[in-house]
Amino acid sequence: MKLALIGYGKMGHVIEEIANERGHTIVSIIDINNQVDFDSPQFLSADVAIEFSQPESAFENYRKCFERNIAVVAGTTGWLAQWDEIKKLCIEGNHTFFYASNYSIGMNIFSTINKYLAQIMDHFPAFDVRLEETHHIHKMDSPSGTAITLAEHILENIDRKKRWIEGLKGTSEDLPIFSIREGEVPGIHEVIYESDVDAIRIQHSAKNRKGLALGAVLAAEFVKGKKGFLSMNDMLDF
Question: Which CATH architecture has domain 105-205?
Answer without folding.
Answer: 2-Layer Sandwich (3.30)
